Amino acid sequence: MSDFLRELGYDPFYYWAFFGTAFALWLLSAALPFQPERNLFFRLNGPVFFGLALFLAMFAGRWPVIFFYRPVNPDEAQFLSSAITTLARGDIWWTDPMTSGPLVILPLTLPALIGLPVDFTSGRLIGLALGWVIVLLAYLSVRHIHGDRLARLLILPLGCFVACLMFWDFAPYCSEWSPLFLCALALWLCLTAFETGGKLISRWRLIAGGLVLGLMPFSKLQVLPFTAAIGLTTLLWTLRQPDAARKDCIRASWTLLTSAAAGSALMLLNLCYSGNWMDEHESYLIHNLYYTHARGLPWRDSGYLLRYLTDLSWGFSSFHYGLLLLLIIGQWGLRRVAWRPMLLGWSLLAAGYSAVLVPGRLYPHYLLFLTLPLALLVGLQFGYLVKGQSRRYCTVFGILFIALGTGAQLIDRARDSHSLHKLVATANPRDVVVHFINRLKQPGDTLAVWGWRPELYVETQLPQATREALTEAQLSDNPQREYFRERFLTDLRANQPAFFIDSTGPDDYLLKDRAVKGHEVMPALAAYIEKKYRAVGDNSSLRVYLRCDRFAALKLH
Fold first, then answer.
1. I want to staple 83 with a disulfide (CB 3.0 to 4.6 A). Which of 108, 327, 462, 541 is the partner?
2. Looking at residue 113, what DSSP letter applies?
3. 319: closest CA among 374, 363, 263, 261?
């Protein structure tokens, strides 16, 4: 069955037939309004059908990279290994996914609830599901302002982008999906808590929106600009309600602030209960602040950074430049608009560019932080633009919107020179080692890896014996290096993994010089490994060690 699916997925005819049919169905659902008095399709074509058609289009566009995509992004493996370890230990705070928080890891544990493994396939399905919900929440937010029929068309560029993802740094599960989901959820809750005129109509949605805002920093600190943009804008709305008494405005603002504080307080109380307060303070807060301060590029190179990332990322340039052009075009003819939604849209876009540029690093997946804000602002703007215009101008603006927002992306995807065949999983030096470990592992076993190969945890399905899935922090020149080294050794002694692997060398992701990156750079670690473990293999890329008692049992057999 796997070979049959692989053949279908990588045959251009079958792939484009499936994707084209599914995408056409979604476009049809977007273009034709829900009319219960007409034929069966118009009666069925409600919001639920639109959402299901959207999911089918996204699945059809991405399913080959979901099921047969080779692990080329080590971040994805790091998050999956953290999820495996979280399930084994029952503690969302013990693992350290470096610059990401526990709410990035938590969604990856969901497949285990229905008996599915936490692996690359389930991780990419979770990423697809989060992307789908993000687009749906954006659609529901725009619908609240412009109505259902217009919202379906205005959200086409964002849905098209998520459906066409093939870039190696976008298609895997990455650290942006969970923060963007929380951002879209907070946006929808806060926006729909008010009527379009600005009057508060749902205090419960305001409370729920505040709670989500309080949770957002625990997904990724990089999302703080989004938290501020949504939170401060909503706070302004609560204080500027038309025809509302001053005390009612203050009460609403107090409701929002206390709800956000409650969301953060719940996470902090859980952290205190887990006993991992000091580790989270050092690894998530202090190390993140150092990471942000130690920019990869100076501020003066921000323009180059944005151009480089955009041009590097397959499919993003057509989305980015197309929507920026629409944003500029939309300023022409734009008359009176509701200031509240547009203020939120512009604030989110500023937050998106901040999230991409502040770290100053050449990591393409940061660009995902621009997708929701840019598509939302353009959709809101064009919705106001076409209202009150003559049929002729509406037709012109509609053609421009579809051509630049969606058509350019589809053409870019069809002309993509990066063939799916280049993404087929191939043999790698880890295969022999993974087979060896899977043959010997026992229930309750753990694994420790020194180096930058977190894929080993996923491919062996063994939990981490140490908090980190990779040892970059123990080897890079950072002020907390000794802290991370001591913690690694402490975890190793406490958990005594059955297997220890040193992946440094020519096939490691980045730590390729074994002489200066191998575990021997820590004399205490080298002494511990020599005392407690026995070498069982060295294939020039991976050095494999087995705990002494397991080695003795292996020799007996």
1. 108
2. G
3. 374
Burial of 149 (0-12, 13-18, 19+ CB in 10 A): middle
Taking alpha carbons only, the member of 397, 380, 386 closest to residue 145 is: 380
- Which tokens sit at 170? 């976008």
- In angstroms, the CA 156 to CA 379 distance is 9
**Does residue 546 sit in helix, strand or coil?**
strand
Q: What single-letter DSSP state applies at residue 407?
A: I
Distant-in-sequence, close-in-space partners of 76: CB < 8 Å, separation ≥ 6: 120, 123, 172, 173, 174
**Do 179 and 216 meet the contact criterion of CB atoms below 8 Å apart?**
yes
Strands 533-538, 543-547: pairing kind? antiparallel
In the chain, the percentage of residues whose pLDDT exceeds 90 is: 65
The 10 Å Cβ neighbour count of residue 146 is: 22
Beta bridge partners of 23: none
Note the pLDDT of residue 531: 95
Work out whether the CA dihedral 439, 511, 515, 426 comes out positive or negative.
Answer: positive
Neighbours of 197 (CB within 10 A): 11
Could you read off the pLDDT of 108-134 as tens digits, one per residue?
Answer: 999 999 999 999 999 999 999 999 999
- The Cα–Cα gap between 273 and 271 comes to 5
464 backbone dihedrals φ, ψ, rounded to 5°? -75, 140
Q: In this structure, what token pair is assigned to residue 296?
A: 């990869």
Q: Identify the helix (H) or strand (E) that includes residue 208.
A: helix 203-215
Q: Across all residues in the chain, what is the average pLDDT?
A: 89
* Segment holding 315, helix H or strand E: none
Angle at CA of residue 511, ends 508 and 512, nearest 5°: 70
Count CB neighbours of 360 within 10 A.
16
Q: Distance between CA atoms of 370 and 129, rounded to whole angstroms?
A: 19
Distance CA 26, CA 406 (A): 13
Paired with 220 in beta bridges are: 100
Contact 107, 175 (CB under 8 A): no
Number of H helices, E strands in the chain: 28, 4
Burial class, 470, CB count within 10 angstroms (exposed 0-12 / middle 13-18 / buried 19+): buried
Q: What residue ranges define each of the domains in the chain, with the CATH number in brackets? A: 69-414 (no CATH), 430-556 (3.40.50)
DSSP single-letter state for residue 499: E
Element holding 534 (H helix, E strand) = strand 533-538
> In terms of pLDDT, which residue wins out, 537 or 545?
545
Strands (E), 469-519: 499-502
Kindly tell me the burial class for residue 430, based on how many C-beta atoms sit within 10 Å of its own C-beta (0-12, 13-18, 19 or more): buried
CA-to-CA distance for 380 and 146, rounded, in angstroms? Answer: 8
Instruction: Confirm if 120 and 71 have CB atoms less than 8 A apart.
Output: yes
Type of residue found at 321: Y
What are the tens digits of pLDDT across the range 388-400?
676 777 788 888 8
* Cross-strand partners of 500: 448, 545
What does the pLDDT look like over 203-256, one tens digit per residue?
999 999 999 999 999 999 999 999 999 999 999 999 988 888 889 999 999 999
